[in-house]
């Protein structure tokens, strides 16, 4: 079996999503996911970034280094985010009560730019 550090971004996001849906907050696993994601967050697809942030928020896990890394990466690449990824990222930070004004401003601008693509 591979170690989390050997997983590709989609496998890492899928693993975090699966544990969040099952409501299993295994701290050693979440720490390993966070560490692996932080190392390569710049090459993750926007969907993977948003799923990881959603997963941690769904579990109520505040992993500041991971969330700081996600915020920095998202701010640089929000033009690549689809509406669902924008929404998931905004929901994640709001759910964890993280008031990262530059990220929230960038998310709002990205949402407004793509407002016609959001479902009603």
Query: How much beta, percentage-wise?
Result: under 5%
Rounded mean pLDDT is 94
Question: What is the helix fraction of residues, given as a range?
Answer: 55-70%
Number of domains: 1
What's the helix-strand series?
Answer: HHHHHH
Distance between the termini: 42 Å
The biggest sheet, with number of strands, parallel, antiparallel or mixed sense and barrel status, is: none
Radius of gyration: 14 Å
Brief rundown of the structure:
The termini are far apart. The chain is globular. It contains 6 helices and no strands.
Please give a handful of descriptors for the protein shown.
single chain; 120 residues; mainly alpha; 0% strand
Report what the structure shows.
The chain is globular, with a radius of gyration of 14 Å. The chain has one domain. The protein has six helices and no strands. The chain starts with 8 loop residues before the first helix and ends in a 7-residue tail after the last helix. With 120 residues, it is an all-alpha fold. The protein is 67% helix and 0% strand.
């Amino acid at each position: 079996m591979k170690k989390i550090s050997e997983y590709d971004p989609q496998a890492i996001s899928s693993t975090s999503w699966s544990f969040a849906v099952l409501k299993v907050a295994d701290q050693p696993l979440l720490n390993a996911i966070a560490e692996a994601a932080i190392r390569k967050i710049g090459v993750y697809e926007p969907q993977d970034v948003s799923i990881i942030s959603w997963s941690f928020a769904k579990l109520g896990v505040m992993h500041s280094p991971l969330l700081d890394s996600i915020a920095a990466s998202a701010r640089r690449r929000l033009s690549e985010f689809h509406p669902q990824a924008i929404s998931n990222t905004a929901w994640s930070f709001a759910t964890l009560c993280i008031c990262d004004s530059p990220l929230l401003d960038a998310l709002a601008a990205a949402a407004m730019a793509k407002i016609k693509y959001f479902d009603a």
